[in-house]
Design goal:
Number of domains: 1
Structural class: alpha+beta
Strand content: 15-25%
Number of strands: 7
CATH superfamily: Sporulation inhibitor of replication protein SirA
CATH architecture: 2-Layer Sandwich
Shape: globular
Largest sheet: 7 strands, antiparallel
CATH class: Alpha Beta
Radius of gyration: 16 Å
CATH topology: TATA-Binding Protein
Length: 151
């Protein structure tokens, strides 16, 4: 079983780092390994948005009802099942952690509903990372931003 985290990235950062995903990935990994560092905390809080538990749950209920998927909610733990495939999610304020057997399960059960909910979602795994949707650039001005990176 694989574990991934989904972060809702601010539009400014998504626009600037869409084609520099490796830098964003390294930053998030650095933050996860050094949460006590105040500079990383401040940058992480700046680049990520909070999930609204109520809005996301409401969206999931509607989506699962349309697709006839089973949704089980137990506080911050959510399970989505359909046609023998299941995904386990754990809601946090700034990220959603999910577990699945294959990314294909996530592509079938989870990603379509998240794409309808929000387009600026960045996923990290042990050695994998990426966006679940293409980013549509709205601001054509050059943005001079720098995230901490180990390289």
């Amino acid at each position: 079983m694989y574990t991934y985290s989904i972060y809702w990235i601010t539009e400014e950062i998504a626009n600037h780092y869409f084609h520099k995903s490796d830098i964003l990935y390294r930053f998030i990994k650095s933050y996860q390994n050094n949460k006590a560092r105040r500079d990383l905390q401040l940058q992480f809080n700046y680049i990520t948005r909070y999930y609204s538990y109520e809005k996301l749950i409401s969206h999931m209920k509607k989506h699962c009802a349309k697709r006839r998927a089973n949704l089980h909610i137990n506080g911050s733990h959510i399970t989505i099942c359909q046609d023998g495939s299941c995904i386990s999610l754990f809601m946090n304020e700034k990220h959603i952690e999910f577990r699945c057997n294959t990314l294909q399960e996530a592509e079938e059960l989870l990603f379509p509903m998240l794409r309808e909910y929000e387009r600026l979602l960045f996923i990290t795994g042990k050695n994998d990372f990426g966006w679940i949707s293409p980013v549509l650039f709205t601001n054509k001005e050059e943005i001079n931003l720098l995230l901490y990176s180990n390289s």
